[in-house]
Design a protein that fits this description.
Blueprint lengths: L1 E5 L6 H15 L4 E5 L13 H5 L8 H10 L2 E7 L7 H9 L1 H6 L8 E8 L6 H14 L3 E2 L11 E4 L4 H5 L2 H25 L6
Parallel strand pairs: 1-2, 1-3, 3-4, 4-5, 4-6
Helix pairs in contact: 1-8
Bound molecules: flavin mononucleotide (FMN).
């Protein structure tokens, strides 16, 4: 299963482009699932270290739904709105709360494939900085990060929403960057799993 995580509190641009990305993947035969932080209770990591001792998070909130999905995911797509030149606080809270999974199993994320989508209200509003934060999360947890490559999708998919759903829908360059990134993401997923010979069961 490929898991998409929307880090936007709204049902607007970020969730829309993430659903489009997952649609492209399901058209290629992949099972997908979209998780959104919208309307969910996801608290900040408290750094209480309970997870290091007890192998689970002390905060019993909606993050537990995501923990289960992350376990099943072969591929992860994190989509964030750009807030102050970086990821949204919701996206950051999700990434920080993943510490509990790594406390339980140091290799929890190892070998999963990851890509990132950032949606900013401005044309150059920090999309690549936001993606860089997500890619850093991937790298430090052993997730293999994939971009769409040069000529349009250097670090991943980047969108200019002009702060509206209509704006993002008409961002053709953004969708080009998304198609390029999804293509490479699926290619790497397929090659990697083919090499592992696990028939995509992860
Ligand atoms: C607190 C806050 C900070 C923002 N900071 C930026 C920013 O630094 N750069 C940018 O391009 N857009 C910024 N925006 C605009 C959003 O990224 C943009 O409206 C985006 O489409 C929101 O995603 P959504 O439609 O999924 O909610 C900010 C919005 C908010 C609420």
């Amino acid at each position: 299963m490929i898991l998409g995580i929307s880090g936007s509190p709204r049902k607007k641009a970020t969730e829309f482009v993430l659903s489009k990305a997952l649609e492209m993947m399901s058209e290629k035969g992949y099972e997908t699932k979209l998780f959104t932080v919208r309307g969910k209770q996801i608290n900040f990591c408290q750094h209480c270290d309970y997870c290091l001792r007890n192998k689970e998070c002390r905060i019993k909130d909606d993050m537990y739904e995501l923990y289960d999905l992350l376990e099943k995911a072969r591929g992860i797509v994190i989509a964030t709105p750009v807030y102050n030149g970086g990821v949204s606080a919701q996206t950051k809270a999700v990434m920080d709360r993943c510490r509990a999974l790594v406390a339980k199993d140091y290799d929890f994320f190892r070998g999963k494939i990851g890509m990132a989508i950032a949606v900013g209200g401005d044309r150059v509003g920090g999309q690549e900085l936001a993606i860089q934060q997500i890619v850093t999360f991937y790298i430090l947890n052993g997730i293999i990060p994939v971009s769409g490559g040069s000529f349009g999708a250097n670090l991943g998919a980047t969108f200019w929403s002009k702060d509206t759903l209509e704006g993002v829908m008409s961002d053709e360059e953004g969708f080009r960057s998304l198609r390029k990134t999804v293509k490479r993401f699926l290619d790497v997923l397929m090659r990697y799993e083919g090499r592992l010979g696990d028939n995509g069961k992860r």
